[in-house]
């Protein structure tokens, strides 16, 4: 080794003592660089096995990202995490920087492609050369063979006299010499089992110690030693050992134990609970593992598995029959057992355990969402939606014990906590049995979780003989008297399964009686059932309902759901609205018959659980919804047929005035009420009637009447996702005025009244197709692809509102941006209007970063152009958010349009910027419209007149206003459509239990409004610009 080089023991690689041409890796050749990078990546990758499973989601994607940065780990972590959170739901994240090499591991909600994540992270300001791979692929990369030199090297007594020096000897270590980064708690059971040879055990532990010293790579791995002595968990180490000598000294203290005790079982639950506490003294962002050495069976069920918080658990020791209990109890991720201590020591089990990690889930690539009305898959069946009558029978006899019964109590409380209670949902009854049976809680009283838990808490060990048959017959009697045929019935018998009063023959006969009333009976043991007991209990019930211990709660829950799926909710409704005003009875009857024909066809396309409503409307406060109560197709058909057959009922509904706008408001209110009862509610509506301007009330001019209808219809569109259809019975315009149905819905959704409305509706609209797709699942978020648009998005926020900014970002991300929709993002209000992202960039990455960049602009850090560090949270700029309430005035709005003029219109036409044949749309998004006084809006209108017109048709924009509250531009100015968003409207995460059909329909309707933006109508489309 030359004098200008040194051997770094901690990282185990050669580094130049002097910089070499400013390169990160100095004088390393490419092979050493590759090995070093792999080492660092692997060090960080190991985190993923903790983090991804600590916060595991049923549909998650794991990733590894690597790159280079001169910044510290905290800044890099904040930078990358911010980019990810701007576009995805981040389940977990950890990052580190070593020698300027960045490694980050993270999991994202739902199936996400590595290519998309790569594009997001490529926008990092701090990390260069970002490379992203799936977590499972990263595992393969990081487990390639890599040899490291020994961690122990003696310094030479004399300086080297030659130019070269031999490298330290290579020592083979665990995991093919890959240094595994882990904090390990090693727990050794020092209590003896009489059957085993104590001397052999101690000798084997000595061999295991030496194997660990030789095999583990310190300091990447740190070890804390604990012992179980006289059934008590004791700390041997004072702190985690980060070198071989310290670890060996700690283990020797354990081997020098002077007093030994006999024990029959191993209190593994105590071991785990006390070991978890040790990790608080370990290293941050380093995966943890608990390894135990024992020769005894597990003493009791493990209540809190460390794996649930990301700690890997391994057990090794002697006797297969004993150590199998850890696997059966699901208390360990890996169990390695041998039949003798000598065999265990010779096999070196830690060569396997040290190198074992959680396995990453395979990543499913998500398919492209179909535009607008595709059904979204959702798991409807969960315990909370089941309608169950459940009786839990506790065995409290002498064959159990005062230790086992409390375990059953805890199990039962976990079981019942999964359900929703009430007479329309789940009810639970409680009985106990030994020689006799005691009814603790009736089914009819067990309709709240608090009541059920209170009853379970009273269960205790009593002793006595075991009479399972009597418990079965008592349960049957309770089901007979307290339940009914419409409710699913489940009996849990928590017992060791061995009768002492009755016989298995008696139990089989009682089981047959339970089966006769459709009761399924589960038997749950406390440790495991013998094969003989399993066979007998399988005859009493069914083999699939027999579980040997309480760790099988998820399987038990799943089995109940399989047997008794949740009832399909009635959340799809078809509305048929018919005007009953001056039309003759024959005419109304014809319309009703058409509605019945259309609904009959529609009923064949759904599941039979949908609802139907006939809506009759005319004057204000006379909109009626029928049938009441039962809204099945059969009830709907009967009601409509009753109207057809009884002219007097039609006459009673008739009025001479029609307020279509108020009728639409009534329908919207009814749909909102239904959506409140069921967040999965979805619907469509078909109108039969006229909308002539000269007939409809109120008596206002055509434009005002049109606007009244449009405003009412916008709210209805938000409820239905735009599924509004019309059979148009409007009269000729020359006598009755303009047909205003186009204010209510799209032309494509309107057919003219004919003699065969059902057939025309099918041929000329998508009514039946969209109806068939309605379901209790939330709709997918829409997309807008292959649509050329040039869009400006301008944001003005007085208050921090991450939900609103994420909503806007999500909206923009639903467009294909590279060659189709181009976005330019602006910020205005608090400061001079700024272009956050230019139109020529049209980058999806800029869109994803919009929320983050806007906040930088809003708090002032965006304007820091020197190398001075940005203000921290303890030293905020004076104009930070709430410290700077401002007013948008006339001057500000003029500046907004000046800045828009730098991106759009004359002087900016090209295929890469503002395109002549792409409609221009300006979206103003704000929570601040309420502070804009009349002069602001007057100036806004003046700017439009002065800047845009047919002399520059291609540059003339359409305007859309997205308001976070009830404020907006004055309707009288007719500047453009205004969408008002409430907090509930912003919840568009279809994976949770709070999003509604309405919120997602509103989102899709807004997206569709943008997507169908039309070119302005002018006499010519040229790039000839007005000359001043």
Automatic annotation (TrEMBL):
User: GO cellular component annotations, sorted alphabetically?
Assistant: membrane raft
Tell me if Transmembrane helix is a UniProt keyword of this record: yes
The record's section on InterPro entries has:
Collagen-VI/PIF, VWF_A, vWFA_dom_sf
Lineage top rank: taxon:
Eukaryota
Tell me the keywords, alphabetical order.
Membrane, Transmembrane, Transmembrane helix
Q: Which GO terms describe its biological process?
A: defense response to Gram-negative bacterium; innate immune response
Entry's transmembrane regions: 33-54
Residue ranges of domain VWFA in the record: 389-564
UniProt protein name:
VWFA domain-containing protein
Which organism was this protein described from?
Answer: Caenorhabditis elegans
Q: What is the lineage of its organism?
A: Eukaryota, Metazoa, Ecdysozoa, Nematoda, Chromadorea
């Amino acid at each position: 080794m030359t004098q200008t080089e040194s051997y770094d023991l901690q990282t185990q690689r050669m580094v130049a003592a002097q910089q070499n041409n400013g390169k990160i890796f100095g004088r390393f050749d490419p092979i050493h660089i590759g090995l070093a990078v792999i080492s660092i990546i692997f060090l960080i990758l190991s985190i993923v096995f903790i983090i991804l499973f600590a916060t595991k989601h049923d549909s998650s994607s794991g990733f590894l990202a690597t790159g280079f940065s001169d910044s510290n780990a905290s800044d890099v972590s904040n930078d990358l995490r911010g980019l990810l959170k701007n576009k995805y739901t981040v389940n977990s994240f950890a990052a580190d920087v070593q020698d300027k090499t960045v490694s980050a591991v993270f999991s994202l909600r739902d199936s996400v492609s590595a290519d998309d994540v790569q594009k997001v992270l490529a926008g990092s300001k701090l990390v260069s050369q970002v490379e992203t791979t799936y977590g499972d692929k990263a595992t393969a990369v990081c487990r390639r063979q890599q040899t490291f030199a020994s961690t122990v090297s003696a310094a030479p007594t004399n300086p080297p006299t030659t130019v070269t020096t031999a490298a330290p000897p290579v020592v083979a270590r665990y995991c093919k010499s890959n240094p595994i980064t882990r904090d390990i708690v090693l727990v050794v059971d020092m209590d003896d089992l009489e059957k085993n040879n104590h001397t052999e055990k101690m000798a084997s532990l000595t061999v295991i110690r030496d194997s660990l010293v030789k095999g583990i790579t310190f300091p990447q791995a740190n070890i804390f030693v604990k012992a179980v002595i006289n059934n008590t968990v004791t700390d041997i180490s004072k702190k985690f050992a980060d070198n071989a000598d310290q670890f060996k000294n700690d283990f020797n203290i354990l081997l020098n134990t002077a007093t030994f005790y006999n024990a029959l079982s191993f209190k593994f639950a105590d071991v785990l609970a006390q070991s978890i506490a040790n990790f608080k003294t370990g290293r941050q962002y380093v995966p943890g593992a608990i390894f135990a050495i024992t020769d005894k069976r597990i003493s009791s069920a493990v209540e809190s598995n460390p794996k649930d918080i990301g700690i890997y658990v391994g057990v090794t020791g002697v006797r297969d029959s004993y150590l199998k209990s850890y696997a059966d109890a699901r208390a360990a991720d890996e169990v390695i057992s041998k039949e003798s201590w000598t065999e265990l020591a010779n096999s070196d089990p830690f060569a396997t355990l040290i190198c074992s990690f959680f396995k990453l889930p395979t990543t499913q690539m998500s398919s492209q969402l179909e535009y607008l009305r595709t059904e979204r898959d959702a798991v409807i069946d969960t315990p909370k939606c089941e309608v169950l009558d459940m009786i839990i029978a506790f065995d409290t006899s002498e064959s159990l014990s005062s230790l086992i019964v409390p375990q059953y109590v805890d199990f039962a409380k976990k079981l019942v906590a999964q359900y929703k209670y009430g007479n329309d949902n789940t009810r639970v009854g409680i009985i106990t049995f030994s020689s006799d049976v005691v009814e603790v809680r009736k089914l009819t009283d067990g309709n709240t979780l608090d009541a059920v838990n209170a009853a379970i808490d009273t269960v205790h060990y009593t002793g006595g003989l075991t009479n399972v048959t009597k418990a079965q017959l008592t349960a049957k009697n309770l089901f007979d008297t307290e339940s009914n045929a419409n409710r699913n019935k489940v009996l849990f018998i928590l017992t060791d399964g061995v009768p002492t009063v009755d016989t298995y023959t008696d139990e089989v006969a009682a089981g047959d009686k339970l089966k006769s009333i459709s009761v399924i009976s589960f038997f749950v043991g406390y440790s495991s059932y013998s094969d003989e007991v399993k066979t007998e209990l399988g005859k009493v019930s069914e083999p699939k309902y027999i579980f040997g211990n309480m760790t099988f709660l998820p399987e038990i829950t799943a089995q109940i759901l399989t047997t008794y799926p949740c009832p399909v909710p009635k959340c799809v409704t078809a509305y048929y609205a018919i005007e009953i005003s001056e039309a003759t009875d024959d005419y109304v009857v014809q319309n009703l018959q058409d509605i019945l024909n259309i609904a009959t066809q529609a009923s064949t396309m759904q599941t039979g659980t949908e609802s139907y409503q006939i809506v009759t409307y005319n004057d204000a406060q006379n909109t009626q919804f029928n049938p009441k109560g039962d809204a099945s197709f059969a009830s709907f058909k009967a009601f409509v047929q009753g109207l057809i057959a009884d002219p007097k009922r039609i006459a009673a509904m008739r009025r001479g005035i029609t307020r279509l706008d108020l009728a639409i408001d009534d329908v919207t209110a009814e749909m909102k009420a239904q959506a409140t009862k069921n967040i999965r509610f979805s619907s469509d509506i078909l109108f039969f009637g006229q909308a002539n301007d000269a007939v409809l009330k109120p008596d206002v001019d055509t434009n005002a009447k049109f606007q009244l209808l449009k405003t009412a219809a916008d709210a209805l569109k938000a409820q239905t996702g735009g599924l509004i259809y019309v059979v148009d019975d409007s009269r000729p315009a020359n006598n009755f005025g303009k047909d205003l149905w186009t204010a209510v819905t799209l032309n494509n959704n309107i057919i003219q009244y004919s003699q065969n409305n059902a057939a025309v509706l099918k041929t000329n609209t998508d009514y039946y197709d969209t109806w068939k797709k309605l379901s209790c699942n939330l709709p997918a978020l829409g997309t807008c692809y292959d649509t050329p648009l040039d869009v400006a998005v301008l944001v003005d926020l007085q208050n921090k509102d991450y939900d609103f900014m994420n909503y806007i970002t999500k909206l923009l991300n639903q467009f294909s941006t590279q060659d189709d929709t181009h976005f330019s993002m602006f910020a205005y209000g608090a400061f001079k209007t700024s272009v956050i992202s230019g139109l020529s960039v049209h980058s999806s990455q800029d869109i994803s970063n919009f929320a983050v960049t806007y906040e930088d602009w809003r708090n002032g850090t965006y304007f820091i152009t020197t190398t001075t560090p940005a203000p921290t949270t303890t030293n905020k700029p004076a104009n930070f958010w709430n410290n700077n309430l401002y007013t948008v005035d006339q001057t500000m709005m003029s500046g907004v349009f000046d800045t828009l003029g730098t991106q759009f219109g004359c002087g900016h036409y090209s295929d890469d910027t503002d395109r002549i044949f792409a409609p221009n749309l300006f979206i103003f998004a704000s929570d601040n419209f309420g502070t804009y006084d009349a002069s602001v809006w007057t100036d806004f209108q003046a700017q439009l007149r002065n800047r845009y017109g047919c002399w520059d048709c291609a540059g003339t924009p359409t305007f859309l206003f997205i308001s976070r509250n009830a404020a907006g531009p004055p309707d009288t100015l007719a500047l453009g459509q205004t969408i008002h968003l409430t907090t509930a409207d912003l919840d568009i995460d279809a994976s949770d239990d709070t999003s509604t059909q309405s919120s997602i329909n509103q989102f899709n309707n807004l997206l569709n409004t943008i997507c169908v933006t039309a070119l302005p109508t002018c006499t010519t489309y040229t790039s000839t610009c007005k000359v001043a």
